[in-house]
Design brief:
Blueprint (H helix, E strand, L loop, with lengths): L19 E2 L4 E3 L2 E8 L2 E9 L5 E3 L17 E6 L5 E7 L14 E7 L13 H7 L4 E6 L8 H4 L9 H15 L3 E12 H12 L5 E7 L3 H8 L8 H4 L7 H7 L12 E6 L7 H11 L6 E6 L9 H19 L14
Parallel strand pairs: 8-9, 8-10, 10-11, 11-12, 12-13
Antiparallel strand pairs: 1-3, 2-3, 3-4, 4-5, 6-7, 7-9
GO biological process, one term: proteolysis
GO molecular function, one term: serine-type peptidase activity
InterPro entries: AB_hydrolase_fold, Peptidase_S9_cat, Xaa-Pro_dipeptidyl-ppase/CocE
């Protein structure tokens, strides 16, 4: 839009490979500078010339220690969920530059549920995804109903439906991948952190789609999380995601994975930072208390000095290796270079 005349021109994507830009942009005359990334590059500083429409990376280009030949190769997919609704996802098949599965072989797949929950999984290079796809495990990042980037109606699907729409949409993608022969129906898993941890736990306790799951610094018990255990900024978040507690208290109990922990029948890994003030360890502890004595294979790994989102390299390595070991044990994969995760019963 021209600031002086108020006239607007055609809206187009910035030239170049970038599929995601940071929320903050700097404008100087006819030049716009921001931080962008793509499925083949990490975040880098990008300058756009509005007069010519040309864009370029400025400063040092993104570099990392991973050979680009191992980068995951996304496929943008739209699936059909309950009631015919669209469900958007980024599907990353297993990918290795020197190895391939036999033709027609269905791969194990992990459904990734993003946090937020009113956020989205961006279409950008994620080396954590490459860690799994290079070892024969496919990943499907599901932008379930409630995710941003697909319009207001899509975003508002989650209103008072958290724990329903997100769970249904993730399951719809998993089932569709299995039905089309892409994924092995007996080797499906789900994982997520924060709100994605909630979706993972809710999926494991209310569906029979998955063989295992990884739950990372999650919300598990709604009645205590909103009013008592999280920070002020998100303390009223549940009023739009579930409904006002005073009006629908039964809904808070019914939706909570802790309430249905007795339905859990598959192995799981629970990862938690001990300094997390957003999703505190007490959420995990109550959940684990509900499954005590059930001989259910699981592991609970805690990390001192870590909050909501792991920051230290040793923590991230331990968490990734533990997650891969879980999938290897459940899916029957050989990963000799990874320490074996001890699953307790």
């Amino acid at each position: 839009m021209d600031a002086e005349s108020g006239e607007s021109g055609q809206i187009v994507d910035a030239a170049g490979p970038w599929t995601e830009f940071g929320a903050t942009l700097a404008v100087h005359g006819g030049r716009i500078v921001g931080v962008g990334a793509s499925p083949r590059t990490g975040y880098e500083v990008v300058e756009l010339d509005t007069a010519t429409g040309r864009a370029r990376a400025i400063g040092a280009r993104h570099r990392d220690a991973v050979d680009p030949a191992y980068y995951p190769e996304p496929r943008i997919r739209t699936f059909t969920g309950p009631d015919g609704r669209e469900v958007h996802a980024h599907v990353y098949p297993p990918h290795h530059p020197e190895r391939a599965a036999p033709d027609g072989a269905a791969a194990p797949y992990v459904i990734w549920a993003h946090g937020g929950p009113t956020g989205r999984a961006p279409l950008v290079l994620d080396l954590a995804i490459a860690y799994f796809t290079s070892r024969g495990i496919g990943i499907a990042e599901v932008n379930y109903g409630g995710s941003t980037g697909y319009g207001r109606a899509y975003r508002e699907r989650l209103r008072e439906q958290w724990g329903v729409v997100d769970v249904e949409d993730c399951a719809a993608v998993a089932r569709a991948l299995a039905e089309e022969g892409t994924a092995d129906p007996d080797r499906l898993a789900i994982r997520g952190g924060s709100a994605g941890g909630w979706t993972t736990a809710a999926s494991l306790t209310t569906t029979d789609v998955y063989a295992c799951g990884t739950i990372v610094y999650p919300v598990l018990d709604l009645a205590t999380w909103g009013p008592e255990e999280t920070h002020d900024f998100e303390s009223r978040y549940l009023e739009s995601l579930i409904g006002p507690l005073a009006e629908v208290p039964a809904r808070y109990a019914e939706r909570s994975p802790t309430t249905h922990a007795d339905r859990l029948t598959v192995p799981f890994l629970l990862l938690q930072g001990l300094d997390d003030v957003i999703c505190p360890p007490a959420q995990c502890e109550r959940f684990l208390a509900r499954i005590a004595g059930r001989s259910l294979p699981h592991a609970y790994l805690t990390f001192e000095g870590e909050g909501h989102g792991f920051r230290r390299a040793d923590t991230m390595v331990r968490a990734l290796e533990a997650e891969l070991s879980l999938y290897a044990q459940v899916f029957g994969l050989d990963v000799p270079d990874v320490p074996r995760l001890e699953l307790h019963t």
